[in-house]
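I would like you to help me understand the sequence and structure tokens below and explain how sequence relates to structure.
___
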Amino acid sequence: MKRTLFQSIVKESIEEGGNAVPSAQPVRGDLAGEIAKDVINAISSTFNCEAEPAGSTGKKGREMTSGDIDILLGLPWERNEEVAQWVKESFPNCEMAVQPGFKQISFGYQYDEDGAPKVAQVDLMFTSNMNWRRWSAYSPSPYESKFKGLVQTVLLKLIARSKPIDKEKFPDEFYTAEDYGGGFEGVMKSHWRYMWDAEIGLVIVHRTNQGKKRPIKSYTIKEDTIVVTSNPDEAMKLIFGPEATLADMKSPETMVAFLFSGKYAYATPELLQRIHDGVVANKEMEKVPGAIENFEALWNEYAGKEEEPQGEPAYSQAIQEIHDLYRRMKKTED
């Protein structure tokens, strides 16, 4: 059977995350904005759709760099074949990766910087809800925050997940004596929780660890997902409390400040600790140099905790030596 152009593209270049365009290099901040503008003008006029920079694209100056160029595309993923073909025709010989899991197409944009040929990775992020996606893909500029968008996303997801669920409407289930011969009686079988979904909105998901023969790693029953809201302002008030505004959520700094402001509707020492621990333990945080250390410093600033001293202070050793000398002198006198 003869393959279509799109099928060939997918077979040859499909990747899920990571370095989708291997030849790409970090691009200078000011050039990233210019490249984004060029792609946006071309693709929006071709498909008659909304398109705009996302994340930190266009927010960095000449002295900074961007790892890739994120562009929000107001098209449903079902049109990805058309867009993939357009990319191939508009940017001949470019590397391209079609990523269904992320609803994203990445390609290598070829350009010159001071006479030297270079390649920048452009990520076209499909969405059917520009209003929500515009907010969920937001990243503070380097002049607003010391944190990357990844840290903001990790924190926001954990805060959303921490919102208490109505146990009367969404009760927990436990294994009974009939399940697996009673071997797991009383152990958690399934539960419901809030989740921040970058594409859909604030949702309630049903999680279960029930397998055919024995409990397995917990997974989401996708068909049970309930969309609570796709309105950013409504989502903020549900996640943080009625006094929350989008301005309070523009960076990790403003979010942590709100958590300790007395306005956070669900604040308890245990819940705040759980949010903190979840951020610090997140594997994605380890990929960003200094992210965990900077987050700990920010959190401690509001939590009123002092950093634990590294090693024994020098003055403690000196005091110990004085005590030892005093004991020796007393022994001599006796």
